[in-house]
């Protein structure tokens, strides 16, 4: 009988990728003959990983004891990564010896773990290090390039696009050579909302995949489905619903091998169906995708979209109390500064559930007390502000926002100030100030935001700094102009050619420090070219037209008395004639008297005739006499008694 260990060694020398089952059988036989054979145990672990039996590989490592575990650190970390135990995988990777940690395979694994754990900054750093090594020395060059593009797309989705070099933000010619790189470049454009470019790249990726001769029909179909699903989303966002619906017919959910892609395709189908269908049936269809676990879980931004869609369906089914309770509990758990903005959309959903999809002042009265319970709920705050603006009452909205911002400034840790000066909240504050004509307050808000982000090494929004610099340049205060110059200095220091930042820097230091603006003058268009064809003298003769200043929307009376406006002359009304008017005919002289006082008045009924008889005209005139009161208290008029026959008294 041959030695199992020798047979295993000879097989490993000539093994190929098709021999993993045979390698596993011989490794088990060698371990059965000698349980202390570390090489056989290591071989079994590798064979299990090659066969995608990751849970079995982890059990085999645990059975081998400390000696095998110290030898299989890379294998254990990879198995934990594939089973979705990302934190354990990262902890295991940190235990690797320094000599092994510098190996290319281990750095590649660490980058994959960081990517799946949504630590995209670390993943990008590792992939850049791998890509910077000499090309041609490794077989994974194309894989590194594909993964780096995917990481850049995830950085864009996470709001960290400013960390990407400007040269990598646009698709290169090399990215159009394979369907994987074209697809990942399209995803980056989707994250930046550059949907037309993304549509072109997805079409290119689909054509390259269909023309690829290196894939079997089954592999080609598996690669095409994610591209088509992503293209359906882009077309629907572009408003090309008919094209998206035509592509949707090509997707068979049961044929999609990856569970995350299946969930996204299911969501696209529901979205294209519209809101006119039965929400109960729609919810039933959405549950068919099943729950995702392990490495099949969606990224957080994808889960947040599906979560909001689920709540939207429940609102259509009028499950207001359940949605309010669920979102309320979720929002109360948000404690860190970053979570305040991550869960902000749920605040809007909670407000919709609490008001039962109501609007106006009634909705404000229902959700305003909730803000006291959840004072850090950004979504609820913005919903209240929006409702106030819709009813034409921005004053209370600005008051609530200012109280919220002051509380964030006073809260520790200092990371809450990043939330306070987040681009969205600053934009809302500036918009409300400008709506009320408070231009100086808007400028002061932008100045504070600029000062905050200038003190940071990174700014999440260059547009915020650009707007702040432009606004500060309009000020006559030398301190504001200096702040504008510092703002533009930070912008021009970032990679890329920002012409607006260069122009702002020149405008800020043109009269103060020529040496700072001299390197940027070549970037700007010459003044002679800009003013070519303009008649300067004609403009001077026409005068300067100043824009009308915004007036505040308050109802308070101004301090200075305004000159009284001239009273408009009263327009005389046109004379109106009666319908039966005849020219030359004498009008009735009694036409101004009430009807009952006219001579032609004839009352109807017995009471009316009696009153007519008692009237002075044509009736008996009653005589009156004046009687003096006793004691000289005056006199009164009474009807004079008329003579008549006295009735005889009867005999007693």
UniProtKB/TrEMBL annotation:
It is found in: Cytoplasm; Endoplasmic reticulum. Residues 558-567, 578-600 have a biased composition (Basic and acidic residues). One of its GO terms (biological process) is SRP-dependent cotranslational protein targeting to membrane. Residues 551-652 are annotated as: Disordered. One of its GO terms (cellular component) is signal recognition particle, endoplasmic reticulum targeting. Residues 558-603 form the Signal recognition particle SRP72 subunit RNA-binding domain. Residues 568-577, 601-610, 643-652 have a biased composition (Basic residues). Keywords: Cytoplasm, Endoplasmic reticulum, Ribonucleoprotein, Signal recognition particle. GO terms for molecular function: 7S RNA binding; ribosome binding. It comes from the Eukaryota. The keyword Ribonucleoprotein applies. InterPro entries: Signal_recog_part_SRP72_RNA-bd, SRP72, SRP72_TPR-like, TPR-like_helical_dom_sf. Component of the signal recognition particle (SRP) complex, a ribonucleoprotein complex that mediates the cotranslational targeting of secretory and membrane proteins to the endoplasmic reticulum (ER). Belongs to the SRP72 family. This is Signal recognition particle subunit SRP72. It comes from Xylaria grammica.
